Amino acid sequence: MTEAGGADADTANSAAIEDLTDLYREYGADRLPPGQRETDRFPVLSKSGTPSWGPDTFEFEVWGAVEDPLAYSLSAFRDLPSVTQRQDFHCVTGWSKFDCAFTGVEFGEIVERAGVRDDAEHVLFHALDGYTTNLSLAECAREGVLFAYGFDGDDLPADHGGPIRVVTPHKYAYKGAKWVSGVEFLTEKELGYWERRGYSDTANPWNEERYS
Ligand SMILES: Nc1nc2c(c(=O)[nH]1)N[C@H]1C(S)=C(S)[C@@H](COP(=O)(O)O)O[C@H]1N2
Ligand SMILES: [Mo]
Fold first, then answer.
1. Could you say which architecture CATH assigns to the domain 2-6+13-41+53-207?
2. Ligand nearest to the CA of 181
3. How remote is the CA of residue 67 from the centroid of ligand 1, in Å?
4. Most exposed: 39, 48, 166, 202, by fewest CB within 10 Å?
5. Sequence-distant (≥ 6) Cβ neighbours of residue 38 within 8 angstroms
6. Which stretches of the chain drop beneath a pLDDT of 50?
7. pTM tops 0.90
């Protein structure tokens, strides 16, 4: 794994941390969504443990309804333009963690580089542990959807999805694939792992959209 210096340097080089912790205002007056408890811990939730990967063999791929399919090594991915954002994190099992500082590549950056086609409307994220999760392209295009590789100034810990995970501050956290290895752009919706097993496809925490 790359030394912690990677994320440190990126954080130091980027502009001031963007604060996205007020995005709840779009949905109501309360920062803490209904039925959630705030925690200072950062629990780990994985369907089947932390997969192994190698820093030299890891690849991040983009395919489907795009003009230019992409493949990045980890170091090439970390060379892309990045941002650092303060975001809240809401797990569907009932805990929320405020003020997570994530560093990573904005979803829109990948859309531009891949030349996503006009007929693409859906996205399916693929992960090293076989996990998938889906979002509409419009939801992904929102500010705050990042391919994060840094957390609180360090490399994103492996348990939390390092080397790269998706974060979706306006959705329950199962919409953010840890160990994300690929992004597939689709013209027809495909449901992801938990969405096929009864969790809400829309997953809005302030409307308590937990189950479908
Ligand atoms: N690849 C992958 N991504 C995943 C999961 C998983 O099992 N595998 N679990 C999801 C769930 S249900 C949640 S709540 C968050 C938990 O992230 P954390 O372990 O960093 O708290 O990751 C999401 N992304
Ligand atoms: Mo979850």
1. Alpha-Beta Complex (3.90)
2. 1
3. 30
4. 48
5. 32, 95, 96, 97, 98
6. 1-11
7. yes
Length of the chain: 212
User: Which residue type is seen at 64?
Assistant: G
Q: Is 65 helix (H, G, I), strand (E, B) or coil?
A: coil
Query: What does the pLDDT look like over 163-182, one tens digit per residue?
Result: 999 999 999 999 999 999 99
Q: Residue of the nearest CA to atom 16 in ligand 1?
A: 45
Tokens of 87: 């975001």
Which tokens is 130 given?
């076989």
User: What distance in Å separates the CA atoms of residue 139 and residue 173, rounded to the nearest whole number?
Assistant: 14
For residue 189, how many other CB atoms are within 10 A of its CB?
Answer: 14
Per-residue pLDDT of 16-51, as tens digits, reads: 899 999 999 999 999 999 999 999 999 999 999 999
133 CB burial (10 A radius; 0-12, 13-18, 19+): buried
What six digits make up the tokens of 175?
């919409």
Give the tokens for residue 132: 């998938």
Interstrand relation of 18-19 and 83-90 (parallel, antiparallel or unpaired)? parallel
Looking at the CA of 210, which ligand is closest?
2
CB under 6 Å to ligand 1: residues?
A: 43-47, 91, 127, 129, 131, 160-161, 173-174, 176-179
